[in-house]
């Protein structure tokens, strides 16, 4: 069975830490690199629900997309929310590894997984790095054009259900062929999506004013599809699981978390 260090090496080959944004915190949060790993749980959020799942499943490693300790801390006492999670992980002998914006920018990465789930053929990054193949977001195309209303239904059917659901903003009859996607909060790329000339833009956490102002720029502005943050990034869990299954065929059991950690739980 591989050591934790070997599993981390496979993850970092797929999602190089050098691709992470300067403000990000990626890598091993807790755990002994020399310890063996037979079971891994992959999730979007390292929160109480997924730590419960990790303990119940008997894994030795949790691979999360979102960092647990994004901002600098001076301690992790067990009577604080995040400190409590660290203590639970250590007591259970479970390591935590986080791949965040390095997984966003990798090729393939988070937005590739979202595009694949929707049924897009990826063409290029939305916000490319100098190499032209890595970077944030993706631009892709559908096999055939379809009305925007049908496209919104396509997106909803492709992703796990959430209470807020999937929202569309645009002419329901507009034909959609080229699409920009960005897993996670993406209204910072509204300008890039417009400049790319795509028909629609799919992302999460769209705020009222940026979305409204974008739609007011004219009929050529991409139609918008709004998702919850968790739903937009959950397809990456399957992608990351394939990385480990390919690297350690038969030697590591990889589990994808089935627990919805989207914070919205009630629709009125």
Automatic annotation (TrEMBL):
Pfam families, A to Z: DUF34_NIF3 (PF01784)
Please name the GO terms that the record assigns under molecular function: metal ion binding
Superkingdom of this protein's organism: Bacteria
| Keyword terms, alphabetized | Metal-binding
**Assembly with partners or alone:** Homohexamer.
PANTHER family reported in the protein's UniProt record: GTP CYCLOHYDROLASE 1 TYPE 2 HOMOLOG, NGG1 INTERACTING FACTOR 3
Family the entry assigns: Belongs to the GTP cyclohydrolase I type 2/NIF3 family.
Q: Which residues bind a divalent metal cation?
A: 65-66, 104, 229, 233
SUPFAM superfamilies for the chain? NIF3 (NGG1p interacting factor 3)-like (SSF102705)
Q: Which InterPro entries match?
A: DUF34/NIF3, DUF34/NIF3_sf
Record protein name field = GTP cyclohydrolase 1 type 2 homolog
Q: Name one GO cellular component term.
A: cytoplasm
Q: Which Gene3D superfamilies match?
A: NIF3 (NGG1p interacting factor 3)-like (3.40.1390.30)
Organism for this UniProt entry: Amycolatopsis thermoflava
